[in-house]
Amino acid sequence: MHILFIGYGKTSQRVAQYLFEQDVTESDQITTISRSPKRDVFAQHLSQDVHSLQLDHLAPIDLVYIVLAPSQSGIAQYQRTYLDSIEPIARALKAHPVQRIIVVSSTRVYGEHQGEKIDDDSGIQPSDEQGQILRGMELKWQALYPEQTVIIRPSGIYGTSVARLIKLAKDTQYYPDIHYSNRIHIHDLARFLAYLAHAKQVSPSYIVSNNHPLPLHELIVWFQQQLQLPLLQLNSHKLSGKQLYATRMMQTGFQLQHPICFNDYLMCLKQHSQSE
C-alpha cells in the first residue's frame, strides 16, 4: 500500500509514525507533502505547494490523508486552504488508483451554540463563514470521490501545552455562562486516523471527540485550584456551545487512551512547572 499525506503537521506526523510502527510492512510506502522540509526516516518527503501539486512521478497511490491547516487566520486563508486546493489535488490524484481519501475537517460545521447534544446523525448547519467553507470542502470531496471519501470531524485538539489554559486561569475572574467545550487528545486522534487506514468497513464521516463535553468555566476553575488562584464567578446559567458525542467512532470498537482530559492536564502542569 502506498500512503500519501497531503499536509504534514503535528497530527499527520503522529499518524505516519503509528502506521510505520504498527501497520506498515516492508512492501508499504509512505510519502508526505508539506510546504517545509521534513526528516522522518520512514517516509519520502516532498516540499510542494498543494495548489500546484505534481504526483505523476510517484508509485501508484492507494490511500490519501488530507490534513491541511491555514498558515494565517481569516476567511481568505480558509478559502485558499480548504476549497481552492481541492481541484489541484484531485487533478494530481487522477492517474492514481486511490481506494480511500481521509479528509480532516472540523466539528465547526455543526453550528449549534445553545448547549445542544450533537452526534454523527445530527444535521449539519454551519453558523459562520469558516464552518460554511469547511462544509463546502466536505461536500466537494464527497462529490469527487463518493465511495472513497471519509470525513473526520475532530473536536478541540489538545496535547502537550497548557500555556493558554494557564493564562485563562490567571486572567479570568468572571465567566458569562455555561459554555460547553469538547476535546480529543492529539494521540487519540492520530491513532483513530491510523486505524482507518486498514479498517475494512468505514462510514462516510466520523466525529472524533472524547465523549465528555465539559463546561469551560469548570475547566478554568480546575486550573485555578491547581495553581492556587482565586476562583472565577459564573455570571449566569445560560447554556452555550455544544455537546459532542462520537457515536460512530465508538461503534468501531476503537478505544481511547485519553478519555479524561484532567489526567493529561495534570501531567502537563507538572512538566510546565519543572520547565520554569
Q: How would you describe the overall organization of this protein?
A:
The strands form four sheets. The chain has a seven-stranded parallel beta sheet, sandwiched between helices. A four-stranded mixed beta sheet has the order 6-15-10-13. Strands 8-11 form a two-stranded parallel sheet. It has a domain of 193 residues: Rossmann fold (3-Layer(aba) Sandwich). The model has no long low-confidence stretch (mean pLDDT 94). Helix 1 crosses helix 6, helix 2 runs parallel beside helix 4 and helix 5 crosses helix 7. 36% of the residues lie in helices and 22% in strands. With 276 residues, it is an alpha/beta fold. The radius of gyration is 20 Å and the shape is globular. It has nine helices and 15 strands.
Layout of helices and strands, plus pairs?
Layout: E1 2-6, H1 10-23, E2 29-34, E3 44-47, E4 63-66, H2 75-83, H3 86-93, E5 100-104, E6 114-118, H4 129-144, E7 149-154, E8 156-158, H5 163-171, E9 174-175, E10 178-181, E11 183-185, H6 186-198, E12 205-208, E13 214-215, H7 216-226, E14 233-234, E15 239-244, H8 247-251, H9 261-275
Parallel strand pairs: 1-2, 1-4, 2-3, 4-5, 5-7, 6-15, 7-12, 8-11, 9-14, 10-15
Antiparallel strand pairs: 10-13
Question: Secondary-structure element sequence?
Answer: EHEEEHHEEHEEHEEEHEEHEEHH
Query: From the alpha-carbon coordinates, what is the Rg to the nearest angstrom?
Result: 20 Å
CATH architecture of the domain at 2-159 and 183-211 and 245-250: 3-Layer(aba) Sandwich
Main sheet overview: 7 strands, parallel
Summing up helix and strand content along with how strands pair, one would put the structural category as alpha/beta
Helical percentage: 25-40%
Beta-strand residue fraction: 15-25%
- What's the end-to-end separation, in Å? 45 Å
